[in-house]
């Protein structure tokens, strides 16, 4: 298990028009939003939540130039040092002929690298488990999970969410990171460990 | 907000300054280069230079302003809404097509009917009769077909473009459209846009570059050539749109145009710079690879051989750097596409780069080693820039800067990437 076991106050919203001002108010009140789970991608929600811009494209650029360098060094070594062949009387260092392969490797490296990085950032992988705050986040609810720190007053926060327009509010104790295992068994373990 | 734009004095000053400088350059060429003196290829260099520079500039700037109408038509056909807030800018640019079209037509006619065999040597009947390849192409490369097809092309770009512009302007008069009227208007717009696009494909993306530019080297041919020319002018047309949008935004106009719209124009410029490179490379690599003398001749005239560098080698690779490497690296980042300063810089760079591109298309086949890049060349370019600024300013100050009853306007106002 990674991360740590924490307590959350979870509010489910039915409408994204209610969700946006709620996110704003919750942040302004100083509560710590763990994450907001939505059935579909919502434009601008990342800005409203104050999440920083992703660096995925920078990673993509680095993968791409790695691909370019790999292709060029590999081909120039093979065709000039390791196994020089006379192909139609062309020079051994035949740069124009290498461009398509260089391009393909650039694209391949950046595409595969970015997909894997994306999966890593989203903690997506076969056999990996993550806690679901509400199953309806995959259907029709917008679910906001607020992390409870030492200073957070649960009851007050629940009241706050009620006023902000949440339809369902509950308190959950959950693992924040990802783990390999089974939900039902693990959930029981948390409850026992924390004594809820 | 007031959507009427009054041309500031500085704009007019620059416009007339550029036009006067250009007219002076052309007059200088007219007096000093004896443009009507005839001579075979390479015997009367000054007069060849006069026509070659005019040909390069007129064709480049005409195709560039015409690309603005192509931009309107493709975005219309794709049901695009994001460009509506700045739609009047490409419209204004395309309104210069008839003026530049007429100038280009006059120049082409002077070359063809003036028997300038130093520019198009397929004009020489004796040469063609004794040349198997040229006589095989004579059905296409002859003065009559050249004249008729050039006239049809310029005329249809003008007429179809004018129809698109008038469709847009009539919305200003007719007021708010209800759902049904709006739907009908969009449909009519789409039909005319597709007519323009089809003819654009038959002219700019195929026949016109063959006739006007590729026939400078009539023995040589490349199936990539027209696409390459099209990509070159489309990307500079997009840069021109970006420049005018930024200028107007700088003057406090175009209130609904934001960084989001600039970002999308930047993406277009980025994408079509790469597209241009793709065609440049496809043309180059196939010829390099098959290595047939009649095909490689084109590049030997430019780059030279391994033993002897050609006179255009520097320009040839500069072309690739300024039109591919620079836009690729500069526009790759999201923040540069959203920066008004960086976009201005890149747009100017791209327009200059593709002017160079056209320079190296025209000059090697006409002037060979004797091409120059002196005040005369830049002066002629400034004449065309001045005319474009004059025409665009004229259109922008006459009509509302916002197509405020366009059915997709709201989509453009709330657009974000």
What does this structure look like?
The complex is a heterodimer of chains A (196) and B (417). Chain A has helices at 16-28, 45-49, 56-82, 95-121, 154-164, 183-194, and strands at 5-13, 32-37, 128-130, 142-147, 168-175, 178-180. Chain A has 196 residues and is α+β, with helices and mostly antiparallel strands. In chain A, the strands form two sheets. Chain A has a four-stranded antiparallel beta sheet. Chain B is mainly α and 417 residues long. In chain B, helix 9 (225-250) runs antiparallel to helix 10 and helix 9 packs antiparallel against helix 14. The chains are: A alpha+beta (196), B mainly alpha (417). The A-B interface holds A 43-44, 57, 61, 88-90, 96-97, 99-100 and B 281, 284-285, 288-289, 291, 332, 334, 416.
Jot down its keywords.
heterodimer; A: 196 residues; alpha+beta; Alpha-Beta Plaits; 2 domains; 4-stranded antiparallel β-sheet; two-stranded antiparallel sheet; 48% helix; 18% strand; B: 417 residues; mainly alpha
Give the number of DSSP strands of chain A.
6
Report the oligomer: heterodimer
Measured between the Cα atoms of the first and last residue of chain B, the distance is: 25 Å
- SSE order of chain B in H/E notation? HHHHHHHHHHHHHHHH
Name of the CATH architecture of the largest domain in chain A: 2-Layer Sandwich
Instruction: Say how many strands of chain B there are.
Output: 0
- The dominant shape of chain A is elongated
Structural class of chain B: mainly alpha
